[in-house]
Amino acid sequence: MVIVFALLGVALIVAVVISLFVRRHGESDQPQAGWTPTDELFKDPGTDRMMRVWMDRAGERHYVPEQQG
Asked: What's 44-60 look like in SS3?
């Protein structure tokens, strides 16, 4: 029984560490050619970064960190 809990604990820790390095759905480092910025700007509660919503030609939303400067 202890081994099961230990394995579950290790799996949980691995999942948390992986989630820190994997991008969320639709998130990009920078906008791609053909994307249009929207007026939508929000603070990502998970990272505390300001994110801008960009739309591509197909109408898909992409989230790009707002440039500070």
From this structure: CCCCCCEEEEEECCCCC
